[in-house]
Structures are given as C-alpha cells and as structure tokens.
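F.,

This is the one I mentioned.
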C-alpha cells in the first residue's frame, strides 16, 4: 500500500533540476563542520600535515563522488543511493544495515547541529546555554527540532527550495572570512605554523587524527544520489554530485589553510567552537565573532533541513522495498514520508537528552556521525567494484572503462582507511547502535511472512551482536567514554 501511495503521489510532484540537486549536495556538506575546521586541525597538525590530510581526503572523497556518479548512470533503477547499492551488492540484511547506519548517522549529525547552535549563542553572551548541552539548551533545541518537523511535512519541494536559498545565504560569510584572512595574512605566522611543534606522534598519526573531521564535513556528497528518484534527468545526479563536491572542497581547504596565517596554531587550537569566529574576532575585532556566528546559525539550519530530508528518504525507500516496517514508507499528500520524518525527529530528541550526560557533547556527536556512515560508504564502494568489474568483462549492458574500475578500487581503499583511522572504539560504539536495530528488520520480515534470517544472515547478525557486546563491556570498563 505504501508503495502504491508513493507512485500515485509522485506524479503530482515536480522533479528536481540539476541546480536544485547541486544545492542539496552543497547544502548537505556546508553545515557546522566548516566553522570548526581551524580549531580541530590546529589541535592535531600544522600546515604541512593539513595539506596532506586535505589531499588524501579530497582525493578519496572525489573517488566516492565518481562512484556515485557511475552508479547513478549504470544503475538508474536504484533510487536510494547508499542503501540501494549495499542491498543490490550484498543482500537484504547488509542493505538494511546500510540504510539504518546512514539514517542514524544523519540523526547524530542533526543532534550535533543543535548543540553547535546553542554553543554559538552561548559564545555571543546568551546565558544558561553553556557548551550547548545544558538543560536550557536542550529545551530550546527541542523547540527548533519540532518546528522543522512541521516545515518538512509540507513537502520535499518546499523544503528543498528553502535549502537552496539558505545555501546561497550561508556561503557569503564563509567566503568573506576567507577573503579577510587573505588580506590580513602574516607570512611569518605561516612559516611558524608550517610543521607545527610539540604534536604527539608521527606525521602519519597527525594526518590520521584529522580523518573523522574531514569525513564529517564531506558527508552529503551522496545527497543527489539519495534524491535520484526526484531528478528530472538521471545524468543530473552525477553532474550535481561532482559539481557540488568540487565547490565545497575548495571552500573547506581554503578555510583551513588561511586560518594558519592569522594567528599561532597554539592559540587556534585553544579557541572555543566555532573557531572561525575566534579567528575573525582576532583579525578584525568583536564584530567578526558576530558575523561568523550569524552565518553559522544560518548554515546549520540549512544543513539540518537537508539532512532531515535525506534521512527520512532513506527510511521511506527501505520500507517501500520491504526492508523496513511498512509504516515507515507511508507518504502524505505532499510526497513526504511523514512517519519516517517523525521517527527521525524522535531519535534526534533522544540523542539530545543523552548528550546531557556526555563529557564533550560536540566532539562525541561529530565523531559518531562520521563513524556511523563509514560502513554504508564502504558497502557502496565495494558494490561499485562489482559493477565496474562485471561491466569491464562484458557482463553488463555497457562495458566499463578502466577509470570506472580504478576509481571504485580507490574508493574502497579510502573508506577502509577511514574505518582504521576512526579507531576501534568508534567501531564498537557503532555496533551498539547497529545490532539492536535488527528488530526493525525482523518486523519487516514478519510482515512478509518470512523467517527472521535467511542464508548467511544469522552469521552477520551474530558478528554485529558480538561487536555490540564488546562495546557495552568497553563502556562499562571505562575503555570507552561518552
């Protein structure tokens, strides 16, 4: 019934243009992360390490962008991006994991956005908000959360239009920040900050420690793929992905590098977040903090809107494919998966409450967002290798080029490195979230009158359950801290 409703409603909803899809990609990636880049990088490495980190991250994410472009063109029948690719390549259960992990990652990211907004308001002098996770801050975040829920219920088109307008508005203060930093840039500061003194570990360790940050800011590169079913033309999906990625990559790298030329990195690393505000205040005075902070709030609200849409879309499509309970696929008259949006809002609300008890709510939400999405990205990249290899050997409708196979292999290598860079503790925390979610998969199977697990699925479930148990033990023993 949900699928039928979706088909009926789809015909009455206008399709998204390439410009709008590009806006979704840019709006999804340019959120809170860019405003925290200077402080996070300066606390880990100097300019030399930052350049290497951005080369690795940029090249790796470009390979992923090429993967999504190739799959959008070669597999146009797969309409939910990361989730659909994982399912097509590795079966229903791992496809379910990809859908749930991507959705949970989006919810963690949206939680981070609200905490970051409250922390920013606190830096502007609003009392009672602390680091963004006080009782008052959570209360105000909750009000904003449900206001956005009502906005999103009005439809994909209206929300996407708001996102496009906000994307343009939030890029202005970031670009002005870059230009001002270039104007006041001190060559001596660049020289002193080139290698960075007193950092623990080798250059490799310094670069590795920045990887989760780069993953966080690049999340959303797959945004156009998630909305492929709404695109006017299938080719627009791949073009929007590449165009959006290249635009945002230039912004992220520029913000990081020019910051090193304004003040000593030791001072940058000690700035309260958003560190961009502290740098501009140092350069031009108090109005700089206000300017960046207002831009941040606009930016984060736009990113929150885009991620809420993408999170609900993944749940809805998974339900329509019968990999999630069918109630999550129900669409209202404006083509919005209203129950999926509601469940997304409920999880964000729950995470906001949990962060009241975290030692560092901002860092925990950011790193958890990044780690949860690594498994879905890795599965999508592995599927791209399968598709490119089969097409290369004449098993597809069109033979693949050597570039398709090479970029897919490089994307797998990059995402595997990210799993390693994240560390075992975040992998175990991810399993704590993944394993219990299997109850949704079992519910979907029972709706179809099927067994809970088939084929090799019990083995996958056992491994995820083992990872979750190890994670719980590590939390209890104090090896992992929230």
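My design for it:
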């Amino acid at each position: 019934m949900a699928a039928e409703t979706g088909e009926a409603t789809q015909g009455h909803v206008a399709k998204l243009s390439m410009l709008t899809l590009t806006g979704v990609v840019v709006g999804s990636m340019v959120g809170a992360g860019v405003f925290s880049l200077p402080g996070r990088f300066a606390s880990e490495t100097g300019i030399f390490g930052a350049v290497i980190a951005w080369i690795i991250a940029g090249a790796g994410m470009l390979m992923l962008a090429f993967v999504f472009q190739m799959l959008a063109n070669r597999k146009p029948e797969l309409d939910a991006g990361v989730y659909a690719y994982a399912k097509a390549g590795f079966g229903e259960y791992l496809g379910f994991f990809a859908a749930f992990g991507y959705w949970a990652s989006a919810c963690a990211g949206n939680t981070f956005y609200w905490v970051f907004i409250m922390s920013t308001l606190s830096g502007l002098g609003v009392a009672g908000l602390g680091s963004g996770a006080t009782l008052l801050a959570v209360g105000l975040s909750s009000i904003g959360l449900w206001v956005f829920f009502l906005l999103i219920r009005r439809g994909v088109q209206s929300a996407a239009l708001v996102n496009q307008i906000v994307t343009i508005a939030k890029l202005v203060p970031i670009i002005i920040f870059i230009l001002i930093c270039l104007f006041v840039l001190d060559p001596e500061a660049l020289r002193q900050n080139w290698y960075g003194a007193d950092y623990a570990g080798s250059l490799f360790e310094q670069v590795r420690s920045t990887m989760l940050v780069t993953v966080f800011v690049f999340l959303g590169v797959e945004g156009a793929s998630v909305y492929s079913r709404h695109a006017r033309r299938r080719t627009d999906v791949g073009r929007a992905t590449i165009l959006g990625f290249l635009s945002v990559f230039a912004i992220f790298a520029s913000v990081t590098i020019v910051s090193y030329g304004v003040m000593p990195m030791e001072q940058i690393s000690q700035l309260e977040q958003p560190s961009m505000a502290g740098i501009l205040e140092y350069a031009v005075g108090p109005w700089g903090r206000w300017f960046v902070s207002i831009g941040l709030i606009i930016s984060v609200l736009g990113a929150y809107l885009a991620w809420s849409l993408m999170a609900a879309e993944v749940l809805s499509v998974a339900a329509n494919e019968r990999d999630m309970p069918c109630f999550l696929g129900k669409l209202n008259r404006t083509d919005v998966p209203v129950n999926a949006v509601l469940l997304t809002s409920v999880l964000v609300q729950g995470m906001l409450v949990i962060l009241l008890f975290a030692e560092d709510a901002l860092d925990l939400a950011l790193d958890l967002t990044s780690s949860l999405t690594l498994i879905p990205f890795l599965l999508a990249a592995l599927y791209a290798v399968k598709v490119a290899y089969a097409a290369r050997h004449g098993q597809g409708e069109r033979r693949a080029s050597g570039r398709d196979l090479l970029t897919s292999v490089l994307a797998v290598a990059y995402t595997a490195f990210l799993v390693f860079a994240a560390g075992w503790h975040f992998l175990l925390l991810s399993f704590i979230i993944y394993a219990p979610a299997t109850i949704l998969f079992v519910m979907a199977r029972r709706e179809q009158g099927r067994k809970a697990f088939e084929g090799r699925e019990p083995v996958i479930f056992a491994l995820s359950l083992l990872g979750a148990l190890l994670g719980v033990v590590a939390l209890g023993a104090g090896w992992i801290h929230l």
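Residues 1-13 have pLDDT under 50 and may be disordered.

Talk soon.
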